[in-house]
Amino acid sequence: MILFSLVCSREHGFEGWFKDGAAYESQAALGDIICPVCGDHQIRKAPMAPCVHTGKAVAAVPAEVLREAMVEVRRVIEENCTDVGAAFPTEARRMHYGEIEDRPIYGQATAKDVQELAEEGVEVVALPWMRRQDG
Ligand SMILES: [Zn+2]
Questions:
Q1: Do 48 and 4 form a contact (C-beta atoms < 8 A)?
Q2: In a domain, 133, yes or no
Q3: How many angstroms does the Cα of residue 41 sit away from the middle of ligand 1?
Q4: Residue pLDDT, tens place only, 93-108
Q5: 3 C-alpha to center of ligand 1: Å?
Q6: Residue 75's domain spans which residues?
Q7: Residue 102 Cα, ligand 1 centroid: separation in angstroms?
Q8: Ligand 1: distance of its center to the CA of 34 in Å?
């Protein structure tokens, strides 16, 4: 995950997490990134200079801390969502098109699946899936 400092066309600064630089580019191109202050879709990366401190702070987070955070994310997802496994892209589509009732799900999807779902307007978040130490 990468943290980018972003700015809208009205100069509101905010930050967003992205899987990688390409994920930012594609979401920005699709207008999927929205200014939390004014709702503007015209988002660009903030100039680098004001981001120095943010960049250092992110880089200074020990890998172990990030790993624990991702394990926590996994725990919350597993407690609140249904594991549909490899059927995830199919199930997410069926919910999006109203064929089945909406419910929180998680499962496996390839990067290509995620991109296709996003292109169809299905709200999907791709997360690195951390192995738990107890299992
Ligand atoms: Zn704005």
A1: no
A2: no
A3: 8
A4: 999 999 999 888 989 8
A5: 18
A6: 63-119
A7: 31
A8: 8
How many domains does the structure of the chain reveal? Answer: 2
Q: How far is the CA of 5 from the centre of ligand 1 (A)?
A: 13
Which pLDDT tens digit goes with each residue over 73-98? 888 888 989 999 999 999 999 999 99
Residue 28 CA, ligand 1 centroid: distance in Å:
14
101 & 68 share domain: yes
Instruction: Check whether residue 71 and residue 86 sit in a common domain.
Output: yes
Do residues 54 and 16 share a domain?
yes
8 CA distance to ligand 1 middle (Å): 5
